[in-house]
Amino acid sequence: MNFPFYIARRYVRSQSRQNAVNIINFITFLVIVIGSAALFIVLSGFAGLKAFSLSFSNTFDPDLKALPATGKFFLISPEQEKKLNDIGGLAAYSKEIEERVSLSHNQKNHIAHIKGIDGNYPLTNNIDSILYYGEWQMGQQTGVAGIGIINLLGLTINQYRNPLVVIAPKPGKGSLSPQGINTTKPYNELPLVITGVYQLEVNLDRKYIFAQLPLVQALLEKEHNEFSGINFKLREDANEEKVRYQITAIFDNTIVLQTRRETNTAL
Prior knowledge:
By secondary structure, the chain is of the alpha+beta class. It has helices at about 1-15, 20-60, 80-85, 120-125, 145-155, 200-205, 215-220, 240-250, 260-265; strands at about 65-70, 75, 90-105, 110-115, 130-135, 140-145, 165-170, 185-200, 210, 225, 230-235, 255-260.
């Protein structure tokens, strides 16, 4: 037993005379150190970017959001609304409808999303805090747009003589160019006067236009109780799991309930 330990102790402390082996070992050591340091820096950078990106969602997204389990829209009955009002852990909730539309102004076009919101929408998030200039006013044929859309289309606020035109395809099936003479347009148009401009993040600034909920429902030819989502604001002392269970039970598995982090899984 002493002989193997003697050999091991001798060659651990001895210096190798093979310069090539020493150089290879040194290069390998440097590669491992540099690679580990680079990986640590990159992962730390991505962790910081994730926290920075999620900070935008704290302003834009609610604590909980209900989305349709199938399709784009779902119905809410008066009984379901009454049950939502009885949930003690909810501070507020708002209904919305969202669809992709085409925007046109002065021969300039842009594809964006129009979001119809009710009066409780600012209570479920801090959306009004990102207003850049103008007013957060949701009146008849008025709305708020992102600064990216404003710059792309050359818009100004309170432009009543030359408003923004929102174009949405009519719901239904069939060809957009049917045979024969057909004077009806396959799309609906909505002139919208921009009264306010918000600024948050480049992609979001080019994506959304906010308008009154009934106005957007009429544009999309949807019923008054047909929505694409519900935003929920929880009380500070609320039990999130309990509230989620109560909301899911009201809609009988017709919705998918997501938290703020689940809504932004890509981040």
